[in-house]
Design a protein that fits this description.
Layout lengths: L7 H8 L14 H35 L11 H10 L5 E3 L7 E7 L11 E7 L5 E7 L5 H7 L3 E8 L2 E7 L5 E7 L2 E6 L4 H9 L1 E3 L4
Antiparallel strand pairs: 1-9, 2-3, 3-4, 4-8, 5-6, 6-7, 7-8
Length: 210
């Protein structure tokens, strides 16, 4: 006795598979599309503000992580040594305004015998973060003097704090202020502005006796 097979309707239903009754999702409504566009527009409008905030935070972090590279020194001991060994009254810039910071000092007084020439050099960083160098020596051929004054072009004189200084332009195009006093040469020069160099020169005064 044969077993009856499935009817044609049942076969069609079985051949359609399990997804035959599923329908594609409906398209988003106008409200949903509007909401999505509003969110996208909001994100786009906030992006420049976020970028600005990130840049500001980065700049603040950079400033805080970049300490002042200038390392001031105290030239007092070298100045006192030069004053003790020199056969002349050593003069140096004193009571300079804020922003003038000594960063280097050098003297050959340590190896000088009695009566030998003594040279003293002091370097400063100025308020414009440029360099101003001061030299005093009773040796007219001292390297720190000849390196600046040899070949320099005189440009007249300037009176500072009652003293007359010769203004020159060096071979490097920098201003040099110099004067001689009883066989001693005093020199101020560097990449600093003329006004800053004049400030250093005007502050030159004898080292107080100790």
């Amino acid at each position: 006795m044969s077993t009856p097979g499935p009817s044609s309707e049942q076969a069609a239903h079985q051949g359609a598979g399990p997804h035959a009754d599923e329908q594609p999702p409906p398209p988003p409504s106008a409200v949903e599309r509007a909401n999505r566009m509003s969110a996208a527009n909001m994100l786009r409008s906030l992006l420049p503000l976020v970028v600005i905030c990130l840049l500001a935070v980065g700049w603040i972090a950079f400033r805080q992580g970049d300490p002042d590279p200038v390392r001031p020194i105290d030239p007092t001991s070298s100045v006192q040594l030069a004053a003790a060994r020199a056969s002349y009254a050593v003069q140096v810039p004193s009571e300079l305004p804020d922003g003038y910071r000594p960063t280097s000092v050098r003297t050959d007084a340590g190896g000088a015998v009695d009566g030998a020439p003594v040279t003293l050099e002091i370097g400063y960083v100025t308020p414009s973060t440029e360099f101003a160098g001061y030299v005093t020596s009773d040796d007219p051929g001292a390297d720190p003097l000849s390196a600046v004054l040899d070949g320099a072009r005189a440009d007249g004189t300037v009176r500072l704090a009652g003293e007359e200084w010769t203004r020159s332009t060096t071979g490097r195009g920098e201003t040099a202020l110099s004067r001689e006093e009883d066989g001693v040469t005093l020199l101020v020069t560097g990449s600093a502005t003329d006004a800053e160099l004049e400030t250093v020169a005007a502050a030159v005064a004898p080292v107080p006796a100790r």
